[in-house]
Design goal:
Blueprint lengths: L1 E9 L2 E10 L5 H11 L9 H14 L14 H12 L6 E2 H7 L6 H9 L12 E2 L11 H14 L1
Parallel strand pairs: 3-4
Antiparallel strand pairs: 1-2
Helix pairs in contact: 3-5, 4-5
């Protein structure tokens, strides 16, 4: 996993929030380049202690949105789509069309699908729970990983 943190203000305190959560599959170079393109002004620093602490929280409490602070930026449609994705419980899936209905954009299925694909914090905003009507398995990190995630969630809920 490639984890990116940014500092946010929550109440009167500063805290770290996850802004990037990528699956790193074929070495770090490709994922790091993607991060550099999306976040050109961010300094990338390896901090194993922070990553370990965040990963421990992710493994234990990823279904509790209040447990992990997330910092995302997007269009109104993207934010609306991502808000609906957070509501999907582990083990459940919906289609892109159903998601478009939930965000009151029933005719904008492609735009909704694009918003799903722009999610920078995989797992925390569970885009893998959106499935195609046709049964095609589409996922930015590859169809095999999506299938494994859905199978894992189906068997652990």
């Amino acid at each position: 996993m490639l984890l990116g943190l940014t500092t946010i203000t929550k109440g009167n305190k500063s805290c770290d929030a996850v802004c990037i959560l990528y699956f790193v599959q074929k070495g770090n170079d490709e994922a790091l380049e993607k991060v550099r393109q999306h976040w050109p002004k961010v300094e990338l620093v390896l901090d194993a202690g922070v990553i370990e602490k965040c990963m421990a929280t992710l493994c234990v409490d990823k279904e509790n949105p209040a447990a992990i602070d997330v910092a995302v930026m997007g269009t109104d449609l993207q934010l609306s789509v991502w808000s609906e994705l957070i509501k999907l419980k582990s083990g459940n899936t919906i289609t892109y069309s159903e998601l478009a209905q939930l965000v009151d954009r029933p005719r904008a299925v492609r735009a909704v699908a694009s918003a799903v694909g722009k999610n920078e914090v995989s797992i925390l905003i569970p885009c893998h729970r959106i499935v195609s009507k046709s049964g095609a398995i589409k996922y930015g990190w590859g169809p095999q990983l999506k299938s494994e995630l859905l199978e894992f969630e189906a068997n652990t809920c």
